[in-house]
Amino acid sequence: MLINRNYYEKLTYIKPDSDEMCNSYDNVTNDVDALTSESSIILKNQINEYTSTWLLDKDLWIQHENSKLNVEFETLSRGRIVLVNPGVTKLGREQRFMHYYIILGEFKETFIGVPITNMAYDKNRSRNYLRNFFEVELIDPIYPKPYNEYRCTKRSVADVRNISGLDKRRIVKNQLYTDKKFAPSTYLNSVSEKIRESIASIV
Q1: Residues 45 and 123 in one domain
Q2: At what angle do helices 26-44 and 48-65 cross, to 10 degrees?
Q3: In this predicted model, what pLDDT tens digit does every residue of 43-55 receive, in sequence order?
Q4: Quick one: 198 and 109 in the same domain?
Q5: Has residue 167 been placed in a domain?
Q6: How do residues 109-129 score in pLDDT, each as one tens digit?
Q7: Domain region containing 40
Q8: Does residue 35 sit in the same domain as residue 100?
Q9: What pTM was computed for the model?
Q10: Are residues 124 and 190 in the same domain?
Q11: pLDDT by residue (tens digit) across 191-200?
């Protein structure tokens, strides 16, 4: 642990300290420098996918903090598929790296989406499998694929455990974004059913 976490947790809510500028506290600015230095070491020893994802995420954050990032209000219909960068600063099994998301809903500049990821494969048994209860396999429909429909190129799952509310500016505006592809009804129905099952199991 590089910093005194208890100290900083208190600084988030104990007034008047929580309202003071951090540059008036030498220990705070020193810890900022220490974490920045350690972050640099970690990033320089990672693969390009990791470091590039981090750089894109932090560049977005800096633009936002400097009020140089325009708010995105484009309507995202339910079922639309988008490529999203949720960043790399995750813990445990939280979602990170670029992933395709199925849009479940939106409100102004934010959206709710469920990530798509490759289905796990057991080499010893030569078969795919679900990693946990919250994954659901995305089965392609049997009818011919319409132009505006998105289908996974390999066996994939939606992980409802990682449903997230994200800012629309995290969406990568690539060809998929321009083409406006949508998930087939089989994907959406499977996700909806898994959400209902998950809520029922919690209750």
Answers
A1: no
A2: 150
A3: 899 888 888 888 9
A4: yes
A5: yes
A6: 999 999 999 999 999 999 999
A7: 5-65
A8: no
A9: 0.86
A10: yes
A11: 999 999 988 8
